[in-house]
Amino acid sequence: MLAAADQQIQIKLKSAEEKFQIDQNVFSVSSNSSQTELQQLVKNLLDLSDSDIEFSFRVGEEILQNTLRKYCESCNFSGEAVLEIDYQEKRKAPDVSDVVDLDDWLGGVAAYDSQCFAGLYNGQLAVIGLDGSTKSYEVHNKPIKSIAFIKTYEEEKRKKNLLVTTSLDQNLCFVAVEDSDCSCLYSLRGHTETVTCCSVSPSKEQIASGSWDTHLKVWSTSLNEPCDSEQVSKRRKNTGPQSTLLRTPLLTLGGHTQGITGICWKDNSQLITSSSDMSVKIWDTQLMSCGKTISVNSSLQCVDWSDRSQLIAAGSSDKYVRLFDPRGQTGTIVHSTLQGHDLWVSCVTWSPASDVELVSGSYDGRSLLWDIRSPRSYLAVISTHEDKVLCCDWSDGKLLSGGSDSKLHITKL
Questions:
Q1: Domain 98-221+229-412 sits in CATH 2.30.130.10
Q2: CA 64 – CA 129 distance, rounded (Å)
Q3: pLDDT in tens, 307-339
C-alpha cells in the first residue's frame, strides 16, 4: 500500500510502436496522476503537444481508468518498485456510419469485398453494393434469422458468392449471388424448430447450425456431393418446375436443454454454442460429444470465439458480455465481464485483427466497441439504432449492424 496521500512513485513508460518510443523512460510522478497527466507527459516528451494524437495507458492487463494510486491500492503495489506502463495510440472514434434503409427487420448481416448482405424478416436476402444500391431476392417464406458468407467460386467463368441463410421455416439455404442474380442452390433440412444461427468453419468446408430444437448440426459446403447428381438425374425425368436440391446433415449433436442461440467454430473440429439454458458448450465433432460445459446465471443470446485471444465472448439477457477462458479446468472460467449496455446483448463479434477488441449489439439500440482490458468502459458507440440491434458482423474492414428499425449501419474501421 502507498503510505502518503500524494506519494511519488517511479514509472517506466514503454511503447511497442517504434515511432512513439522514448529514450529516457523512467520517471518519478505523483501517485495521483491519471491518464490526463500521463498523456501530457508523453506528448511533451514526443513533441506532440499540439497534435490531436491521444494515447491509452495499460498497467498489467488493465487499461488505466483512475489514478495510479487507486491502481496500486487495488493490486497491493507498495510503490517501492518501478511500475511499468505500456502506452499506445488510442483508437479514434469511427466515422459516422452509412445507413441503408431496408424493407424489414434484419436478422443477420455479412460482408465480402464490395458487397454487404442482409437477411430480412420478410424472407428476402438484400444485397447492398458499394454505391448504396440494393437488390432483394426471395429465399425463405419466413423470417431469416442469420446469414454467413462462405466463399467465392466460379461457374461457367462467372464469379459467384456463396452464402448460407437460416430461417424460422426450420431450414437453411445455400444461396449463390452474382451481379444481377441470386439463386437458392440447396435447402438444408433436418431441424424441427427455428434455425437461429450458423457459422462457417475456418476451412470453409463445413457449416454448423443451431436451433430452438436444442440440436446443432454440421453440413458440407461442397457443391459436388454424390447425392447431388442423383437428384439432378431425377429432376430431369420430372417435367414439372425445377426444385432446389436437398441436403441432409453430416452430424447431429444434442446436449442443451433449451434452444441454441449462438454458434461458432473454435477450429476445424471444435464448435462452441450458447443457449438460453444458461450455458456455453464446447463440442468435438470428431469425438461427436460435448467436451466442456460452462454455466452462468443468465440466459445467453450469442457467442463468438477469438483465435487471437483464445477467449469466448457471450452476450446475455442480463445486459452483460461475459468473456470465458476455456483453458481452465474447473469452475465457471469467467475471464471478465463487460458492462455498458442497458438491455439484452443480442450479438457479439471479435475483431479479426486484434486480440483485445470486440463489438456488441443490444436491445438498447447501440453497437459498442470494446477493449477487453477496460471492462467497465467501452471505447466508442459504433452505431445508434432507433430500436433493437439484432445482428452485427465485423469482416472485410467493415462493422455491420442491423435490427428491428429495418436499417443497416455500415461503419468502416
A1: no
A2: 41
A3: 999 999 999 999 999 999 998 765 457 788 999
